[in-house]
Amino acid sequence: MKNILTLLAGLIFGIGLILSGMTNPANIISFLDVTGKWNPNLAFVMIGAILIGFFAFRRAENKPLTVFNEAIHLPGKTHITKELIIGSVLFGAGWGLAGFCPGPAIVAFGAGLKEAWIFVAAMLIGMILHDQIYLKLAQLKH
Fold it and tell me: What is the SS3 assignment for 78?
């Protein structure tokens, strides 16, 4: 049952991304083009996600278990670090250049969009490099 509900949630998320146009890189890039033909659709999607996320996280903070009786692990509040800033800059630059962030890229990848295949491949290479290089360097520091 858990797998079926998880699949259903993923399908609803993916369909929402498709219907909102967030799997089309041109829509993202046009949102970032504030001096040209600005497209505000991404702002509405973000506002909707923030509202849903706000109430979902507030509810989760008060419950120790999921509906499947598994422990809820929410990240603690932390401070801003150099790594967070560097990661945010890299994420934002990639998002702005490619017009994809990971969720919509995977949906577009599944739909066979060539640009998404390239992005997902680059994202996977970046994850591997992170694990192989950055994490090993971080371990040497400690």
Answer: coil
Total domains, the chain: 1
Residue 22: which residues within 8 A CB-CB, separation 6 or more? 28, 42, 45, 104
Boundaries of domain holding 46: 2-141
Task: Tell me which DSSP letter residue 133 carries.
Answer: I
Each residue of 91-139: pLDDT tens digit? 999 888 999 999 999 999 998 999 899 999 999 998 998 888 887 887 8
Q: Tell me if residue 18 falls in helix, strand or coil.
A: helix
Please report which helix (H) or strand (E) contains residue 108, including its range.
helix 102-110
Instruction: Give tens-digit pLDDT for 67-104.
Output: 888 888 877 777 898 888 998 998 999 888 999 999 99
